[in-house]
Amino acid sequence: MKIKLHHVVMAFFTVITASIAQVSDKETEARLWLKANAEKLEINPNETFSLRFVRKTQAGETLRFQQQKNGVPVIDSEIVVHFSPYGEISCTASSYDAAVADINTIPSITKENAASISNEALQINGDITFQESKLGVYNKQGSTKLVYKVLTNAYSKVGSWETIVDAQTGAVLSTKDVACYHKNHKHNKNESKTKAPISMAPLAFVSGTGMVFNPDPLSQAGVNYGDPGYTDGSDAATTQLNNARVSVTLPEIDLTAGTYKLKSTYAEIKELGMPNKGLFTQSSSAFNFTRLEDGFEAVTAFYHLDKSLRYINQTLGINCVPYQSANAGAVFFDPHGASSADNSFYGNGQLQFGEGGVDDAEDADVVLHELGHGLHDWITGGGLSQVNGLSEGCGDYWAVSYSRSLNQWTSDTPQYNYVFSWDGHNPFWNGRTTAYGASYNGGLVNQIHTDGQIWATALMKIWDGIGREKTDKAFLNGLDLTTSNTNQQNAAIAVRTAAINMNYPCADVAVMTQKFLEAGYAMPALALTMNPIENQTVQAEVTNTYALPSFATLANPIIDGCNAGLSQSPVAGTVLTPGDYTITMTATNGASTINRTFNLTVMPNLGLSNTISNNFIMYPNPASNQITVKGAFDSNESVTIYNVLGQVVMSKKISSNEENIDVSSLSSGVYTVTFNSAKVSRKFIKE
């Protein structure tokens, strides 16, 4: 059988551990911690681990250590060691398998042999869009074996397929579709065998525009499915549905030789599965279609994928892109794939959207649900968990977190909690909800899409309590503390841990705890904690004195009930002159006491030099994307921007008398800009 490799495969037999291998200056400390806690973790003597994946986020740094046998990784067996931003260390998750036996780890067949065996077993005779063959130790069928784990996406076969091939005998031990679907999936036995076309690589980005549903026509218009003009009607472009489109900006699209393509830093259209409807390249940067045209689904999916990943990476400041080397950091999507099934799926950095019923790519909930699986996969370095339907719940949450942020439905309407408002909740299928009544774990029914609603419902209740950005950050950074066998219970603990590590106000942590408890999760009691406080620099008033404020917000002691006692020395109101001071914050709860000290530098008031007072300008205020500073600055001038917690969020050298500072990545709030040479500070509001 001759297999033609599709253009998206950069390295056919790339081993995933090599492509995402990372280093950390905390590795030695983490290994010493593993050794000291080996008995507690039930690690067998002489066990070895490799550092396979590292992520640094606002919640700290996570190192994933994979179990090894003679230098060969044990599949799905790892220990996660997490450092808080303040250097505290803990084991947050483990899928370590102590029952793995010592075996011969020298294979009798090659990884190329294993891939060919897999292709034959899967009856693949069309273009391969993704393939990896990875040697590993496998302990999932009652005995330990040396195997090749072959992952394959093929244009002619729906899904993302895993084949386990015995590395000694060549026997196929298992084949299964490991793609994540947005609803229950049955394979189409009559999948087309037509090959996919090959496209040229893009070269440059420009901006464009498009007409899309945001997030769907029913929410945009505030109507129900079945109202006049609001039915699928075989892709009918009714007046009502045309009017439900909105014009949007596409910050990046590819322009090569006069041809525009839906490709950006974060998303790229591809032909990944049947049917073949093309890439919708054109000579105009305006991608304006009605839903009667297939380009409509393409631009709608592209817009929402690009916008969501741009929000994560730039607004939230969380690095999250596909780790698959072929993708070069962009998620690949096919707006008309999945053999036209009434379903969509994610696998191996790729998204395919079906066309049955309502075209899935017309509903942002479907697009973002499938992206949610990708986020889960990329953050964990391939450790996505479907225990209790965890990843399904993650996808539902990510979809509704966005759609609810548009404020199109009030909280007293059923649609406020709908997942798949246009694709579902209609004659095609029932959709899902984030107002699910079952609780964990008595309400589990062992069906991942149904059970995932428990997790999504709990997260959206937290969302209502503390807001979108805080919940999104805690959710994404919490996934960083999970493994491939994490259940909803431990995921809840991980999300709360991430919030604490990011120094969320105790009131926010209390909301999270309450909502998780109401959902049935057992949340461990919180011992008194208080994160270290960064040193502070302030400027004296015109009297050249400084009245010491309360630093209670910076101290933020966290305990169940948020009732810790807190004292400050020197006390608030103490008048200080310019100089350096040590501030001590003391938190108490019963017999527990925590002291945190930090240095406060009071800079003298210079009365503002004539240059600064006469010429210093900073605008606009409030600001959305950038602020401009103008003045006769010293040649060594630089600025440091602090958030309300006194934490440094940005630094920049001022190289001219008029400088633009990009603040688009900052969250909404109040910030202080300090000019380090001039000793001047100004506040601005980031919208």
* Main β-sheet description: 5 strands, mixed
Kindly report the spatial arrangement of strands forming the biggest sheet. Answer: 9-16-17-15-13
Mean pLDDT: 90
What overall geometry do the principal axes of the alpha carbons give?
globular
- Fraction of residues in helix: 10-25%
Rg over C-alpha atoms, rounded to the nearest angstrom: 27 Å
Classified by CATH, the class of the largest domain is Alpha Beta
Quantity of strands, as a count: 32
Low-confidence stretches: 1-21, 187-203, 608-614
Total helix count?
A: 14
Give the domain tally: 4
Question: What is the fold named in CATH at topology level of the largest domain?
Answer: Elastase, domain 1
CATH architecture of the largest domain: Roll
Question: Terminal Cα separation, in Å?
Answer: 58 Å
Strand content: 25-35%
Helix-strand category: alpha+beta
Protein name: T9SS type A sorting domain-containing protein
Keywords: Hydrolase, Metal-binding, Metalloprotease, Protease, Signal, Zinc
GO molecular function: metal ion binding; metalloendopeptidase activity
Pfam families: FTP (PF07504), Peptidase_M4 (PF01447), Por_Secre_tail (PF18962)
